Amino acid sequence: QVQLVESGGGLVQAGGSLRLSCAASGSGFSINAMGWYRQAPGKQRELVATITRGGNTNAADSVKGRFTISRDNAKNTVYLQMNSLKPEDTAVYYCAADVVYRDYEDRSWGQGTQVTVSS
Q1: How far is CA 46 from CA 25, 63, 102, 114, in A?
Q2: Are the beta carbons of 22 and 89 closer than 8 angstroms?
Q3: pLDDT of the chain along its 119 residues, tens only?
Q4: CA-wise closest residue to 24 among 94, 78, 105
Q5: Are 92 and 109 in contact (CB under 8 A)?
Q6: Rounded to an integer, what distance in angstroms lies between the CA atom of residue 110 and that of residue 108?
Q7: What is the 3-state secondary structure (H, E, C) of 86-119?
Q8: Is the Cα torsion angle 46, 111, 74, 78 positive or negative in sign?
Q9: Buried/exposed code over 21-31 (b: 16+ C-beta within 10 A; e: otherwise)
Q10: What is the DSSP letter of 74?
Q11: Rounded CA gap, 108 and 54, in Å?
């Protein structure tokens, strides 16, 4: 089974930047799309950005122009560069990966990393 491990969260002032990383470990798999989602207190989990294996990206309107998703296929790692952070970006950020095993495909999730933006 794949394990996704996130890093890079923390506390930052409004206008600041953070870079999240998520690395997939394990064996016997390949990864199609990867992405980042977030969940603020009292709210549903929402999509932040996704990226295909070929590098096509999609992002929520609320983060376009501020957040950039990228990936390193050789390292099975996805990144989220977050600039011009706002207090409303405060949430737990989760990494997701569509993992392809020999006989089936499944979505795996990371444990989440807290991002807090102070005003």
Answers
A1: 25, 12, 29, 15
A2: no
A3: 899 999 999 999 999 999 999 999 988 899 999 999 999 999 999 999 999 999 999 999 999 999 999 999 999 999 999 999 999 999 999 999 999 999 899 999 999 999 999 99
A4: 78
A5: no
A6: 7
A7: CHHHCEEEEEEEEEECCCCEEEEECCCEEEEEEC
A8: positive
A9: bbbbeeeebeb
A10: G
A11: 19
Q: How far apart are CA 22 and CA 18, in angstroms?
A: 13
Residues 20, 79: contact at Cβ < 8 Å? yes
Instruction: Report the alpha-carbon distance of residue 19 to residue 87 in Å, rounded.
Output: 16
The residue assigned the tokens 């930047």 is 17
Q: Is the dihedral of CA 44, 48, 53, 57 positive or negative?
A: positive
Residue identified by tokens 């005003």 is: 119
Q: Work out the percent of the chain whose per-residue pLDDT is above 90.
A: 94
* Tokens 């506390």 -> residue: 11
Three-state SS at 51: strand
Report which residue type is found at 74: A
Token pair of 48 as six digits:
């932040």
